[in-house]
Write a structure and sequence with these properties.
about 120 residues; mainly alpha; 5 helices; about 0% strand; elongated
């Protein structure tokens, strides 16, 4: 059995799953990519899959023209790095919020118990 990573879904996983789906003759959708990977929320997979679609033409060598490259924004390597950074930042923020809620709940329960004992 394959162990699952404790990290969130990575851009490379989404792209590999989308490539595998295309190779199998299927259109990569958010749900199909999630099923192929075995995890990941639609909100995480969606922007990564959109980036995959946006770069598909150039990767296949069918880009309209070099003038479009200027309007595409940052290089794909930078966009991939920023996607990874964004996922890490959101994960860290959620973890911090979860910890804060847990501490607040524990303090509330402790205060409630203390007031009943007095």
């Amino acid at each position: 059995m394959q162990s699952k990573s404790t990290r969130g879904v990575q851009q490379e996983e989404v792209w590999a799953a989308a490539d595998a789906l295309i190779a199998a003759g299927e259109r990569p959708t958010i749900e199909r990519v999630r099923l192929k990977i075995g995890r990941g929320s639609p909100n995480t997979v969606s922007p990564m899959l959109e980036t995959w679609f946006a770069t598909l033409g150039p990767r296949l060598g069918v880009a309209a023209s070099d003038s479009l490259a200027i309007n595409e924004g940052a290089p794909k390597e930078l966009r991939h790095a920023l996607d990874d950074l964004w996922v890490a930042a959101v994960t860290a923020a959620r973890d911090k919020a979860d910890n804060a809620l847990t501490l607040t709940f524990r303090a509330s329960v402790s205060t409630s118990i203390s007031s009943r004992l007095m």
